Amino acid sequence: MQREKTGLPRSIADNLARQIKDGLLQAGAKLPSIREYAEGNGCSKNTVISAFDILTANGLIEPKRGSGFFVSRSVEVQPVGDEPTTLDRAMDVVWLMREQLQNKPEFLNLGEGFPPVEWLEETRLDQFHQRVVRTGVGSLFRYGSRFGYLPLRQHLQQKLAAYEIEAAPTQIVLTHGANQAMDMVLRYFVRPGDTVLVDDPGYYPLFGKLKLSGANMVGVPREIDGPDIAVLEEQLKTYRPKLFFTQSVGHNPTATDTSAAKAHRILRLAETYDLTIVENDALADLKPRSLTRISTLDQLRRTIYIGSFAKSVSAALRVGFLACDPALASDLADVKMLTHVSSSEYCERTLEAILSDGHFLRHTNHMQEKLRRATEAGVNALHALGAKIYKVSEQSLYLWAALPHGEDSIKFAKAMLAQSVILAPGTVFSPHAEGVSPYCRFNVAYLKDPRFAAALSTLG
């Protein structure tokens, strides 16, 4: 009884206060009557009256004679789905992922992970919906194959052949984006305490996945022509890891490409130390086909190739894939089935329709040309600001650069955030984020925006 006099009214008041401040109960909205609220929550009317009194005293609701209680119109509401960005928030993996997923038109997002929307609009997703519905209506209400939609896998067989990678459809598993492909590989190979090698700097969402799996992450320093081979060999001797996650082409974040000589040496080490290489090629459509891929040299014997269309078609479709040895592909398809049942056949059919259209090759060619122009302009913009660019690329979505007086990229990013400019600080891209990095990852498509230079000028 004592709890109802004190604790329960306060609990009800706190719950309603959260709904009001989060915008779930909007300004001017009428609350349920005291009787309705009491019946719905299994408490007395006096308890509800006490809770409403607390909210009224705090200015969150107001009574209107004869009409009931209403949410006060003076309450400051946080827009739904938009978390406050504060300068003292730790800039970690989750922070940067949140920033990528939020649309903030008033901010200049130089840390953006995707090409501009207008670059992708050429695919005209709206044109393919009716075609997908007409040709696949019978299957759109069921789970698909554990391997994924066969005609799309056959298209991917041709795509891989263009990179001189031979893979039958039974070696290809469709996934819910490249990130699900990584999850499946981790679930299959990694147990808590296992050592996994990663690029350093490297793909930061992978680091979060490895932490969740309880793996021991060890970074392989990234040089301008690929992983540091001497360090890689020493770590293979010391840790005997099962996996090495790397990006050979269009490396995120450094914009480097692994040379053919290094790719051959990595494969020799993999054979010596029984290592599986997971090659993430998410930027394939934005780079020349002629660049060296480890999977091309290995033909998927010790490699797992991961691809995606998030950067060339749409991140919203969430279609990726992996290709590997046939027996392993079957096992990974089982992992996919156990954890997610299947991937979206509707999305897979949509992507297959896009790839079947002759326009797609023109679209990727246009995107590569835009990227070449944007990269040149981005390099010039950074040089004009006195930046040190790790590797000047002719064609890359990202540039890895350090600006003068930005020795600590975290502090620098916080200062720029106050100027409505979002950066991707270099420390986030390290598997050992306790260090300090002067580098940031810049999306070349936005470096010409005058707000960047203006923000830097404001900081002096």
From TrEMBL:
Molecular function via GO: DNA binding; DNA-binding transcription factor activity; pyridoxal phosphate binding; transaminase activity
Coiled-coil ranges per UniProt: none
Gene3D superfamilies attached to this UniProt entry: Aspartate Aminotransferase, domain 1, Type I PLP-dependent aspartate aminotransferase-like (Major domain), Winged helix-like DNA-binding domain superfamily/Winged helix DNA-binding domain
Keywords annotated in UniProt: Aminotransferase, DNA-binding, Pyridoxal phosphate, Transcription, Transcription regulation, Transferase
Classification via Pfam families: Aminotran_1_2, GntR
Key word Lyase present: no
SUPFAM superfamilies: PLP-dependent transferases, Winged helix' DNA-binding domain
HTH gntR-type domain location: 6-74
InterPro entries: Aminotransferase_I/II_large, HTH_trans_reg/aminotransferase, PyrdxlP-dep_Trfase, PyrdxlP-dep_Trfase_major, PyrdxlP-dep_Trfase_small, Tscrpt_reg_HTH_GntR, WH-like_DNA-bd_sf, WH_DNA-bd_sf
PROSITE patterns: HTH_GNTR
Protein family (similarity comment): In the C-terminal section; belongs to the class-I pyridoxal-phosphate-dependent aminotransferase family.
Full protein name: Transcriptional regulator, GntR family domain / Aspartate aminotransferase
Origin organism lineage: Bacteria, Pseudomonadati, Pseudomonadota, Betaproteobacteria, Burkholderiales
